[in-house]
Design a protein that fits this description.
Elements (H helix, E strand, L loop, with lengths): L16 E7 L3 E8 L8 E7 L14 H9 L10 E6 L4 E5 L8 H7 L9 E7 L5 E8 H10 L4 E3 L1 H13 L6 E7 L3 E8 L2 E9 L3 H14 L8 E6 L1 H11 L6 E3 L11 H5 L2 H4 L5
Parallel strand pairs: 1-4, 4-8, 9-12, 12-13
Antiparallel strand pairs: 1-2, 2-3, 5-7, 6-7, 9-10, 10-11
Helix pairs in contact: 5-6
Protein name: DUF3822 family protein
Organism: Muribaculum caecicola
Length: 286
């Protein structure tokens, strides 16, 4: 038996629960929500650390054997849930306008934009960004997709960038000004997503070492859209320490930097929900 952090005793009634699972480079994050529990005790949040040498060659995703072992070592993941969503953090993706390319050509466009050696043995996942005219096409290792579909009951497989964009657009379309969202992940990774109304203008992922690098990526993203920092509303989410580091550094360049809107249905769950990965908690609110 390996690293067991979620056993069956923790989820006595899986049929009344939803499970959201995020597969990343170094860990698998899991949130299980029981709608029939009292507010404040509905969420079970756990993180399964993966071996340091677990990378499987596809955009630094873990090898299939590592994913399999992590799932089988945590038997509660195999329960019969009301709904299962899985977010797979592949670095092979492309943003495609719906109207510019036919649906059956999305995969070809994405593959053509990436090095050939990185697209072997992959499956294209087409993820429409809700409320926009944009699709995010992600290439995932075929063995991981096959395992997820065999192991779980009708899982909804997504990409974290698509899930974040679908969540952020709900509030972005309520304002006339462009909105730039910065979402911080662990391992010094940041997602930058820019909206103007219902239109997704930019979506990208950056790795950085110094907080000033994060400021540079924000300002460069604004400049790439032909805007000035004062033109956009800056909204922050994700890893708390990274947000605290960024605010004093970026404040001289922008009008304001505020927290992004959190899913209203989870506000009563307290700090556990606030500290959980937004790309997973938002899946539970669909």
């Amino acid at each position: 038996m390996g690293n067991c952090v979620i056993d069956n005793s923790m989820v006595p009634h899986p049929r009344q629960c939803r499970m959201a699972m995020g597969i990343g480079r170094e860990s698998i994050s899991v949130i299980i929500a029981d709608a029939l529990q009292e507010p404040g005790s509905r969420l079970l949040c756990r993180n399964i650390d993966l071996p340091f040498d677990a990378q499987g060659g596809h955009s630094e995703l873990p090898a299939i054997s590592v994913v399999e072992n992590a799932v089988y070592d945590n038997p509660a993941l195999l329960a019969d849930y009301d709904m299962i969503s899985v977010s797979v953090d592949s670095g092979l993706w492309s943003v495609v306008p719906k109207e510019s390319v036919a649906a059956d050509m999305d995969e070809a466009v994405t593959i053509a934009s990436l090095p050939e050696e990185k697209t072997k043995s992959t499956v294209a996942l087409r993820c429409p960004v809700t409320g926009t005219d944009t699709v995010i096409v992600s290439l995932l290792p075929a063995d991981i997709v096959g395992f997820l579909q065999r192991t779980f009951n009708n899982p909804v497989i997504t990409h974290p960038l698509q899930q974040l964009a679908s969540h952020f657009v709900k509030t972005a379309r309520l304002t006339k000004e462009p909105v730039l969202h910065v979402h911080f992940r662990t391992c010094k990774t940041m997602y930058i997503i820019v909206f103007a109304g219902n239109s997704l203008k930019l979506a990208n992922v950056f790795s950085y070492h110094d907080p000033m690098d994060a400021v540079y990526y924000i300002l460069a993203s604004v400049a790439a859209l032909g805007m000035s920092p004062s033109d956009v509303q800056l909204r922050l989410s994700g890893e708390p320490e990274s947000r605290r580091e960024l605010v004093p550094l970026v404040s001289p360049y922008v009008e304001s930097a505020v927290a992004a809107t959190f899913p209203a249905s989870l506000l009563r769950e307290g700090t556990q929900a606030l500290n959980a990965p937004l790309e997973l908690t938002s899946l539970l609110c669909e």
